[in-house]
Give the backbone structure.
Amino acid sequence: MKIVIAGAGEVGSHLAKMLSNESNDITVIDSSHERLEALRAHSDVITVEGNPSAIHILHEADVATADLFIAVSPSVSQDVNIVSAMLAKKMGCKKATARVNNEEYLSYENKYLFTEMGIDLLFYPEKIAAGEIVELLKRSASADSLDFARGKLQVAVFKLEDESPMIGMNMVEFSKVAAEEGLKFRVVAISRGDTTIIPKFDTKFKYHDLVFIISKREGMEMLMKYLGKRNIEVDKVMILGGSPIGEMVAKQLSKQIETVKLIEIDKDRCVELSEALPNNVMVVNGDGRNSDMLLEENIREYDAFVAVTNNSETNILACVAAKSLGVERTIAEVENIEYIKLAESMGVDAVINKKLITAGRIFKFTLSSKVRFIKYMSGTNAEVLEYIVAPDTKITKRPLKDMGFPADAIIGGIIRGNESFIAVGDTMIQAYDRVAVFALPQAVKEVDKFFK
């Protein structure tokens, strides 16, 4: 696939590295020579220096023959992304997508306007991240979660601590537990250190494993006893950082819970937030990195602490401090991907990363049209995909155990009409089923062939 990426900032560079690993032909446009040099040093991509909204630059990048144009320029104004995506589509590119930073553009009627202008997808990473944080606060026992068909099937990530009865069990033993409970859940992957494992029968669970489990809605509660976990009621949340993510989280939570307090170090930004946010959100000017300040703001009375400043290290350390002061649930925005494991090892309960969120939305466009969505989950390099099964595709021909499905992938669950199933070896997939697949990066293209 020929892909042109406009913008070599953090998001654009991450996409270029990820998509170049998938045997795609990647061209990156950026006006910064330094950013392009840094990208060339680590990725096998073609670079074009110049303004992505200049027509002669788009011609130089050969967008007319491209399959996909991704506009993710890291400029303050995102207008350049909209203009460059529209131009690329008009010049002949098959699909175009653009990053925006304006919620107004994402309303139903306005998205239709952009579709009419040729842009296939608009995405606002900060808004998606805010939504994920709010969801994580609802399911406080897990490190990450994902719903299929409004919760009929759920994928959740759990860290095995001392109190988990699963530690020392192998997959055969846990499968017996699942069978006793009526096959309401299944382990689809384990993240251990820097490795993601698609488990086999003899795979044993170890202390501090991140375990990825797919469950029917009614199975999630009974699953908690085997994990040694419990959900907590979150009624009071403290947010560190008045970033766009912090503002959107505060606004969403203000409609759902009793108390929201947002701490921001910049006085002018505090004034802006006080005017923009509902009256039940308390905005405090102060340095949330200071434990004494957190104590003055009565942090021990709060159920959850969310750190979303523009600095990953600050977010991690603030969450560690909040945890040590007795807060049960901590969530950090960590944009340095190499710091995600560090944050988890230091006790941060959940991690949000805008680059991974964005990558999932974009990667969908490189796969078959039957993929409804794709998501990278916290703590792993693997992907969760949801397919709608077309008639007469390869996946419908035999039971799963006879399918020769890639070893680095697993089908976890199926939604058929109003019913949901946990997939096992004898399962036969039918046309129009919605299928949840967990796959390591090297297996995604092979998995895709079963649904084409």
